[in-house]
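To illustrate the input format used throughout this study, we show a single complete record. The first block contains the structure-token representation of the backbone; no residue identities are included at this stage. The design step must infer an amino acid for every position from geometry alone.
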């Protein structure tokens, strides 16, 4: 023990006698090394974290989790719930079809219902009726504005058009068709009486408006003497000879538009009373079922697209993980190699300084002072950076491990993709089966 202390005391004494310039050089090298070690430690800690994060992206659990995180629609998709809803709608649809079939058998309808699938609020029905209404109202308002003023003319025109167009449409829909469709004479008479009444009313209202215009334009002086003469318009059959040509045109156009409204009403539904309504009820439920099936088909497309995008996303994440790991490992290896080179350069500078000093004084320094300024422990990056030594790999080792990681990760990804694909394929097959089965009786009516 005493020998060791003596030896150390001798070394301390020799260092104290070391020339000041060499002491400064040695201190500068030690300071420089300490500073570089601090920088390297900070970089290594960041690189270690990046390498670990890169490896996390390669773990099977992480890959599977990211697969499902990229497929929210698949996670919440329930084929049982979809099928239950479709079956429920289809059951209602089948009950409506049965009601329709029972109605057809009961009323001995030889043909399927027709003209029933055109809703009023469509361009084919409501659009045309609205157009006829606007044409007649505008035309009548322009013809009567000189007689009664613009506001009164429009009020009169719209009121007459509503009765002439709207009323004729309803009569055509609910009275004309049934007369030819129902087999019983009593029922035919039942529909014919209000029909004939409204036909007469249509002719009367159009003749009345025509006479009203003719009297107020052509018999102004007579009206001033006998205002009650205007009441003659209410008796068009007796005073039809008072019509002039423009007023007769008004009557004619009104009757033509009324006839078109009758015809449109007739063609807007099946002529047999209630037959079209029964068919519409069934078609409405069929449409609901079809919408659910179409939505399910859209979900199928979404699931396929989502899975494709998930594969691409996960594959990209894996490549990022491999790249991050390789880049970090390469950076840490570079730090290790650079540190070894730094120590070698420092020791070279120290030996050069010692040799220059000895040549200058012509005397050799003790061997203890001529040893490298940094010993093996300080020169070994595995000891200096002991917490990162497991990350130090040569390029050959890094590339070999990278290849192994790539193969292992892709194998794990393939296993996970297969599991998800099998689940997805099961869903797709069930969806295709549902699409082929519903709505049942798809050829209705």
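Output of the design step:
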């Amino acid at each position: 023990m005493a020998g060791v202390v003596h030896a150390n005391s001798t070394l301390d004494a020799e260092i104290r006698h070391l020339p000041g310039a060499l002491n400064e050089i040695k201190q500068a090298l030690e300071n420089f090394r300490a500073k570089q070690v601090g920088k390297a430690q900070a970089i290594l800690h960041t690189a270690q974290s990046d390498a670990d994060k890169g490896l996390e992206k390669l773990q099977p659990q992480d890959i599977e989790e990211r697969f499902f995180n990229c497929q929210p629609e698949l996670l919440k998709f329930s084929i049982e719930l979809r099928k239950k809803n479709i079956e429920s709608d289809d059951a209602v649809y089948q009950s409506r079809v049965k009601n329709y079939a029972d109605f057809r058998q009961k009323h001995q309808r030889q043909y399927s219902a027709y003209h029933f699938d055109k809703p009023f609020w469509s361009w084919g029905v409501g659009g045309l009726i609205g157009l006829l209404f606007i044409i007649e109202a505008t035309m009548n308002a322009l013809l009567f504005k000189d007689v009664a003023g613009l506001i009164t003319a429009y009020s009169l025109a719209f009121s007459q058009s509503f009765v002439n167009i709207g009323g004729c449409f309803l009569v055509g829909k609910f009275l004309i068709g049934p007369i030819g469709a129902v087999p019983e004479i009593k029922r035919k008479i039942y529909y014919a009486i209000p029909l004939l009444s409204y036909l007469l009313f249509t002719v009367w209202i159009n003749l009345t408006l025509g006479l009203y215009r003719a009297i107020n334009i052509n018999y102004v002086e007579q009206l001033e003497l006998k205002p009650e003469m205007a009441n003659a318009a209410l008796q068009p059959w007796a005073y039809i000879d008072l019509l002039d040509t423009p007023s007769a045109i008004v009557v004619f156009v009104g009757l033509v538009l009324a006839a078109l409204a009758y015809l449109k009403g007739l063609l807007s539904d099946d002529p047999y009373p209630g037959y079209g309504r029964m068919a519409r009820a069934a078609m409405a439920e069929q449409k609901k079922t079809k919408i659910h099936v179409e939505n399910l088909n859209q979900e199928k497309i979404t699931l396929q697209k989502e899975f494709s995008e998930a594969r691409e996303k996960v594959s990209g994440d894996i490549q990022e993980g491999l790249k991050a790991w390789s880049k970090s490992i390469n950076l840490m290896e570079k730090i290790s190699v650079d540190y070894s080179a730094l120590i070698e350069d420092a020791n070279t500078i120290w030996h050069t300084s010692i040799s220059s000093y000895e040549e200058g004084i012509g005397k050799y320094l003790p061997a203890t002072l001529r040893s490298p300024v940094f010993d093996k422990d300080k020169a070994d990056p595995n000891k200096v950076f002991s917490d990162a030594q497991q990350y130090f790999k040569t390029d050959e080792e890094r590339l070999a491990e990278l290849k192994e990681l790539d193969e292992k990760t892709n194998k794990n990804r393939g296993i996970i993709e297969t599991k998800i694909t099998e689940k997805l394929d099961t869903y797709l097959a069930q969806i295709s089966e549902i699409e082929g089965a519903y709505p049942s009786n798809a050829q209705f009516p």
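Structural context for interpreting the output: The CA atoms of residues 116 and 269 lie 4 Å apart. Residues 119-268 form one domain.
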